[in-house]
Amino acid sequence: MTDAPAKLIDRAAKTLGPRAVITDPSEIEPWVSDWRGRVHGSSPAMLAPASTEEVVEIVRLAAEYRVPLVPQGGNTGMAAGATPPADGSAILLSMRRMNSIRSISADNRLAVAEAGVVLATLHDAVHEVGMRFPLTLGARGSCTIGGLTSTNAGGTQVLKFGTMRSLVAGVEAVLPDGSVHSGLSGLKKDNRGYSLDQLLIGAEGTLGVITAVALRLVPAIAARAVAWTGVDSPAKALELLRFLEARTQSVEGFELVPQDSLDLVLKHVPGTRAPLSGEHPWHALVEGTTADPAVDIVAELQSLLAAALRQGIIGDAVIAANEAQAEAFWKLRDTISEAERAEGQTLAHDISVSVADMPAFIVDAAAKVEAAFPGVVATGFGHLGDGNIHFHVRAGSHAAPGWYDAEGEKITHMVDDLVTAAGGSISAEHGIGQLKRAEFARLAPPARIHALRAIKHALDPLGIMNPGKLVP
Amino acid sequence: MTDAPAKLIDRAAKTLGPRAVITDPSEIEPWVSDWRGRVHGSSPAMLAPASTEEVVEIVRLAAEYRVPLVPQGGNTGMAAGATPPADGSAILLSMRRMNSIRSISADNRLAVAEAGVVLATLHDAVHEVGMRFPLTLGARGSCTIGGLTSTNAGGTQVLKFGTMRSLVAGVEAVLPDGSVHSGLSGLKKDNRGYSLDQLLIGAEGTLGVITAVALRLVPAIAARAVAWTGVDSPAKALELLRFLEARTQSVEGFELVPQDSLDLVLKHVPGTRAPLSGEHPWHALVEGTTADPAVDIVAELQSLLAAALRQGIIGDAVIAANEAQAEAFWKLRDTISEAERAEGQTLAHDISVSVADMPAFIVDAAAKVEAAFPGVVATGFGHLGDGNIHFHVRAGSHAAPGWYDAEGEKITHMVDDLVTAAGGSISAEHGIGQLKRAEFARLAPPARIHALRAIKHALDPLGIMNPGKLVP
After folding, report:
1. Is the Cβ of B201 closer than 8 Å to some Cβ of chain A?
2. Angle between helix B297-310 and helix B234-245 axes, rounded to 10 deg
3. The pTM is what?
4. Span A88-108, mean pLDDT?
């Protein structure tokens, strides 16, 4: 360990002032572990710039002293991509003070938000001018625009609006050489060479520090309809989605929930109740929205679900009678992970295969894992229409004690091997970070890893941008 | 000049056979100039691989002999990005023999087409299974999927469906080291590191050779309605678009046409007639479509345009009574460039600014250019809803002879300076190629050029992939 970090901190304090340089360990401590508590890091300081110019200054110091930076937003990532190494060799770069919304234009359907703006804050601000930023996810109250962009976040409305990659119109970032890439003009069409914006999206802070993002807006929702349906299988759930999509453009949420997951939620989460009276092996939560106040979205969804029922696609369905019930349906979906944790240890896999292949994959992979590791319970829930399922494996009642440590890695290898054999992705929306780096290295084609390393080295030859993340 | 190209050609002929190595100058000649005849190149051979494996073989030979390759599809590009240098130092790589559609899945809404598949061929093939690939443009009968992807092509339906960047689900490409990047699984969500797909889209063949592309499909159109409207100004045209967008999701084409351009078309293109009886300073062509046979799209557009007329947004409107008339309306838009050429020399600028700024930009920039260069006629037409206008300047009746050579560069500099000052792009959809490279170098921030060069050098250290294009 050199004294370079100390020198950098000293210089930063002189240049940027004390507000931007936090060295009190008690203030740093909440931010050096990932929020799920699996990876514990350390940092001698937390730098908190308030402007792009201050980020430039910090990146220049990092280059001068060869001290790596670990950019961080709300610290809600799932792959420990914003957690510094444990040896204190890197410095945490908190983007949370860069939290102004620079502009909102309903005319251009664009907002420009700084990296530290919290997603829910943006939602509220654009709603005030009759617009909507359509990406949302469970951590909306603390995750930031910079983090969402750097991880190419997904969430529950990807079906209609895509991931951040589709919703980002441009990025402002400080590159590792201290230059500023300014991509905020929000042009809908721009063919001036390689897209640095697209390269920075999902780069997990390894190619530069995103300081602000131009985001595409859509008209605000006038009304929504949320339905809970019971189906026989994931294949029937996908059939329902295709049935709806052929008849309306209003479906924007479609989440698959197995009975097993619903049971856990009903058991562990207070105030929940089953939407349907009978049991169904699988369920699909359907959300339709409209921006047009003249459209009766509830009636539309009701009539479509009635037709799907008559055609035998679904076994039963109920539409939320009011907003409180709609929220209650979504709660059943959003608290699955929480319920699983209350039940015991769970191995989570955020995977994707092609949409058409996913129904069979869920069933087959669950059977294979349960056969190979007797006693465990394997199941998949989530974004069926995106081909993205959270494939979770939990100990179950018959598993041996200590199974997580004993079998966890083996189970994950098996799941990742099945996904890879199916042409899928071992990280659909959570990224690689630290936690999936070994599996990525094990399973990615060598040519891909070679290309990623070449790009990383080309833009960050000193290795100061979030080393040890994403690139194997 | 070395004898390396001759050695490569010799080796290629032995390895790949005579069909893949064309050396007859008369067969090569049609392909070594850009289709608009502005740039004339030369190549000692045209290599025409029939498979990805053959492309790998060719790229390996190019690396071994340090001979650059110039990938080419239908040779319909607007920036001479597929035209080899005049000194014969590079070899043309025709992708047109790789022309099979590997798969079409209505279920996954995906088609996988090889690089040499002609756009119109793909349109027809997916239509047979009730689907549609929604990107289209004038050159659809000869442009190829590989070229469209490599140039991030746009066209007339970008408003609703985006450019190729939005429509490509994945790319297969041979990288400069001879490795194959396989991104064809068509996953909707995949966060395994930097997106090589997005890096290759719009890279104009400078980072690798695209061999096949997975393309997103949408349901086939059941019906369309095409209207011609007269408006007072570009601002009114944009107001009309926003009025329609607030009330329907069916608008997918919206093209601005000035009276001046319409006059030229009526004068030079046989069989054309004005859709409206009176004159209007500006016109907007509106296309609405529906995939639902139950929707009466003509009635919907008619009622919306009647409301826009009552509110004074438009001055007049007519809806095509049948498909022949719809085609006739589109012909008025699609033959503007042809009519301009018949009238005399024209300087074309494919530019974009933010959508909200475009109406004022067209009017202001035209006035400034006409004031600075007396006698010329400046006007803009095209994709107003994308903020992308083809800003054309023609000699006009009063301009001095030889104005193109005398003033062309000065006018282009002025237009590009105005665009840059407005935060816009000097290449909205046509790319940089050879023709815009000097202007790109003049106007791009040095940090951007530095980053592009670093990426180029990282992935193509030997400089064998289409040198002299895109990267200044």
Report:
1. yes
2. 130
3. 0.95
4. 95
B165 and A195: CB-CB below 8 Å? yes
- Element at A422 (helix H, strand E): none
Contacts of B429 in chain A (CB under 8 A): 189, 191
Contact check, Cβ <8 Å, B198/A193? no
Say which of B179, B191, B246 has its CB closest to residue A202: B191
Q: Are strands B46-47 and A346-352 parallel, antiparallel or unpaired?
A: unpaired
Beta-bridge partner residues of B210: B173
Chain A neighbors of B460, CB-CB under 8 A? none
| Contact status of A201 with chain B (Cβ, < 8 Å) | yes
Rounded to 10°, the helix B336-343/B259-268 angle is 70
Tell me if A417 sits within 8 A of A354, measured CB to CB. Answer: no
Element at B339 (helix H, strand E): helix B336-343
Tokens at A28, concatenated: 């740093």
pLDDT at position A406 = 84
**In this predicted model, what pLDDT tens digit does every residue of A214-257 receive, in sequence order?**
999 999 999 999 999 999 999 999 999 999 998 888 999 999 99
Q: Do the Cβ atoms of A386 and A352 come closer than 8 Å?
A: yes
The reply to whether residue B202 touches residue A193, judged by beta carbons under 8 angstroms, is yes
Give the model's pLDDT for residue B107.
82
Instruction: State CA A3 to chain mean position distance.
Output: 36
Name the residue in chain A with its Cα closest to that of B154.
A189
CA distance A363 to A377: 12
Give the angle subtended at the CA of A426 by the CAs of A139 and B51, to the nearest 5°. Answer: 130
Task: Tell me the pairing of strands A388-394 and A346-352.
Answer: antiparallel
- Determine whether B138 is exposed, middle or buried from the number of CB atoms within 10 Å of its CB (0-12, 13-18, 19+): middle
Looking at the complex, report in whole angstroms how far the Cα of residue A160 sits from the nearest Cα belonging to chain B: 11
